[in-house]
Amino acid sequence: METHKIKINSIEEYPQAAHEFVEQMGDGRIFAFYGKMGAGKTTFIKSICEEMGVEDTINSPTFAIVNEYEDRNMNTIYHFDFYRIKSVAEVYNMGYEEYLYSDAVCFMEWPELVEELLPEECIRVDIEEENDGTRTITITRK
């Protein structure tokens, strides 16, 4: 297992942290973002997408479950938010395989609700908010 940590001391540091994250992505495509409510998952994914050249409005797909973006190279990025999922059957019904097994990059919030469906190559991203408001992002590859 390989881990990499990124420290974010303030909101102003999100772009630099996103730059570092994109450099660490390598050939990874599927990223599961774990963290408590308010830890900064959506904010960090938004910063990553901006770093990748997404020009669309980037927001949490809380009600839509998935948003689709294009990066500067016209590659597809899927941004999932599974917070409102009530059962794994809902994810099957939305055709999750078409997303996860495409060539697109996938960023997933609240993946703990669909863990049994995550592919082996999924990269875990933990965002932890410290008492002083800073964040520690831990990227773990199997």
How would you describe this structure to a colleague?
The protein has 142 residues and is of the alpha/beta class. The chain has one domain: P-loop containing nucleotide triphosphate hydrolases (Rossmann fold), CATH 3.40.50.300. It has four helices and seven strands, in the order E-H-E-H-E-E-H-H-E-E-E. It has helices at residues 14-25, 41-51, 88-93, 96-100; strands spanning 2-8, 30-34, 66-70, 76-81, 105-109, 123-129, 135-141. A seven-stranded mixed beta sheet has the order 1-7-6-2-5-4-3, with helices on one face. A hairpin with a 5-residue loop joins strand 6 and strand 7 (135-141). The radius of gyration is 14 Å and the shape is globular. It starts with a strand and ends with a strand.
Question: What is the CATH fold-level name?
Answer: Rossmann fold
**Helix/strand/pairing class, anyone?**
alpha/beta
Run of helices and strands: EHEHEEHHEEE
Say how many strands there are: 7
Strand sequence of the main sheet, in spatial order? 1-7-6-2-5-4-3
Individual helix count: 4
Q: Beta-strand level of the residues, as a percent range?
A: 25-35%
Gyration radius from CA atoms, angstroms: 14 Å
Distance between the termini: 5 Å
The CATH superfamily is identified as P-loop containing nucleotide triphosphate hydrolases
* CATH architecture classification: 3-Layer(aba) Sandwich
Total domain modules? 1
By CATH reckoning, the class would read Alpha Beta
Estimated helix fraction: 10-25%
Low-confidence stretches: none
The main β sheet shows up as: 7 strands, mixed
